[in-house]
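Why does residue order matter? Because the sequence determines the fold. Keep that principle in mind as you read this record.
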Amino acid sequence: MAKTFGNFIAGEWAAPATGEYFENRNPARWNDLIGRFPDSDGRDVARAVRSAARAQPGWAATPAPARGDILRRVGDLLTEGKEVIARAMTREMGKVLTETRGDVQEGIDTAYYAASEGRRLFGRTVPSELRDKWAMSFRRPIGVAGLITPFNVPMAIPTWKMFPALVCGNPVILKPAEDTPHTATLLVETLLDAGLPAEVIQLVHGRGEIVGKAIVEHPGIPVISFTGSSDTGALVGATGGRMHKRVSLEMGGKNAQIVMNDADLDLALEGVLWGAFGTTGQRCTATSRLILQRKIHDRFLRMVCDAAERLRLGEGLDTKSDVGPLIHQAAREKIVRYVEAGKKEGASLESGGGIPRGERLSRGWFFRPTVFAGVRPGSRLEQEEIFGPLLSVIRVNDLAEAIRVNNDVRYGLSSSLYTSNLADAFRAMRELDNGITYLNAPTIGAEAHLPFGGVKQTGNGHREGGWPVYDFFSETKVVYVDYSGKLQRAQIDTEES
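Structure:
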């Protein structure tokens, strides 16, 4: 009998108001039932908001360094439990164990970074333009924060949002992806074990169109951080604007790796294999496009196809596996449709393109790493986010054309350039229209202490990670202290003095 899990609301593990549950299954072996999780609705969200609101005054009054100390203990506990959590995450989400270990490590890094920021929530003191007057600013919490997170990075992304929100003094309500509820449960258990006051954290499982929508629309949640598709993000942003909420949107990507004639091709090959097929291509930063300068195009294309065909598909807990399954059947069916679309558009299928055979892989949602060449700029394969192990190869004549192709999509998250030419590298840094650019490295590999996010339809200007996220989760308050004993009128009296 599979275990039945609960929401964490009002300091206790509780059944959903609906009494309904959904199944969580292993995408590498669909007959492996991990557990049953709450299929909640707006009543559970409302209860979570009431609980978080009760916790807010006490948590906001807790000194920020003390809040940071709790997150330092979270980092310690995640370190101790890293292997257990990583293995549970691989079983639930499918990516290979080396990747889920990295996912947990990113949560550890974020915890320790957030802990240090508890002593660095700086304000400013500035000189006043008037005599005997003091001017300063400081940060204060916003209120209950609603966090909506995806399946593909089920530990790191919740921590990117949650830990800064908590350090800034906000209680949080987490709505994880329906595909990875167990990882979120383990994270919340870790926070409680570290001593976080129980009502400061709420966990509400359920479907995005029900629970996510209820979080976004609840008037008691003034700040929303969302990671997901651009289409859903647009709805979240519209609701947030109408309700005057602070909203951070982290959405899609159509990331390109550019390889110039003078590049180290062996290094570039390692980069594109990791960027395109790591996490089975299910990353917002995944390398979906490979832009090759004409002279090295044919040679490098062959290198990529040969290497892709050697990648071993299998369960992520098998140390021999290079590539795990897609998250579910619908995700695999989507890739099948894009393969057919590529063929109809006249692109050349060079490698992969199908569901693997054999009993070992028949129980999961596996798909062979796929490479299309001759992909035309403007085509569906070149323009649309696919979110799977499908790489589109585009031939260009020079760097100027490569930059134009890179920029001519609606997304702007990550880009990569392999070259030994310093001038080309600096030109690319300036002209590639992305929030993140890597030089001689793949399109994935963000670090916890640097800002993460993109431009255009990838985001709405905010950043996760690094220092900007602490500005997002806090309000700036300005205070003036006039001890002159008389009325002083800023600007007016300054002008007359």
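The CA atoms of residues 230 and 484 lie 53 Å apart.
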